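Example 4.3 (complexes with small molecules)
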Amino acid sequence: MPVEPFGRLDNNPEIRQRLLPYCRLKSGDIWSDPVCGHKVGVLDAAKIDDVQKVFGEEKATLAVQDPPYNVAVGAENTDNLFKWNLQEYMAWSKRWIENNLKILSTDASIYIWLGADQREHFQPLPDFMIMMRDYAELASRSFITMRNQRGYGTQKNWMAVRQECLYYTKGNPIFNVDAEYTDIPKILRGYYKDVNGQKTENFERSKSENIRAGNVWVDIQQVFYRLQENVTGCYAQKPMKSIERIVKASSQEGDLITDFFAHSGTTLLVGELFKRRVYTFDIDPVFAELTIRRLEHFRKTGKTGFQCVNPFPEIADFVIERKQEELPKTLQNIQFKHQGISKNHNFNR
Ligand SMILES: C[S@@+](CC[C@H](N)C(=O)[O-])C[C@H]1O[C@@H](n2cnc3c(N)ncnc32)[C@H](O)[C@@H]1O
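Answer. The structure with S-adenosylmethionine bound is encoded below.
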């Protein structure tokens, strides 16, 4: 039975509090999946005891990491959002990277999604890249940019539509070249190289009708509420297709992969779909619960997310009450918008 969705959890501390009693894990707990051997925990990526608790003696061949970027984007009220100073953020990043290195196998890949705050000298991306030079066991491999469809800052600046992902390797892990073709047809002809005195064309470069992904991804739909994979309450969900591309290129069936920042559980679900085992966790019990519920919901319904539906029917009545209370305010805002008045307009001026 569909129930009314709620908004982003970072904007709704009251809803988050209501969800906590329905989370099966508390801090330090780990859920072991009886079906495919995945694990989901409420753990801190920066604490080595937490990381070792989930891994024991096991090692992962692929890490897909999507930490908080220290960049506030899209929240209604950025005043309430926690932001580190850069030194603290970098010290924290060092801790979780070092913990990640301890649980990687001899030949492994690590992908790290990060942001650059254009209002603050592009922190933390360049600082992070420089920090990564300290780890001699890692080789830098690629700097991927994914294009979002929706951006911010359109009036006085270039619209910000990019997300960055750094790819490093340890040892000599696989890179499955066949996995990284897009759905985009090859349309540009062009000279490629001389073969026996004859110029070959771009089309002859490979058998595929489609172009290779390269390190600029423009073919991936950003997650928004109408997509089936949308998880109500999540505010930083990665599209499954982006994680699928990474998982297919840098791991094989049966591999153990990890994600220290589960949030909506995208890596777990992609692992489930492509027969990888996933050890994942989040510091917040609500996101760990959402991660488990998303997997269970998928197994029950075949759906990859909750689209516009509340994954916590336990608080359905409360969400509906809140919406009814907020309705007059929302209608007033629509009326102001219609009259060209911003909701932040100062009427006393
Ligand atoms: C950018 S989101 C990850 C999004 C995820 N890739 C997805 O597709 O849903 C970052 C997550 O990291 C979690 N987090 C923040 N600090 C953490 C820590 N020290 N350890 C583990 N998780 C943490 C946050 O609660 C948040 O859910």
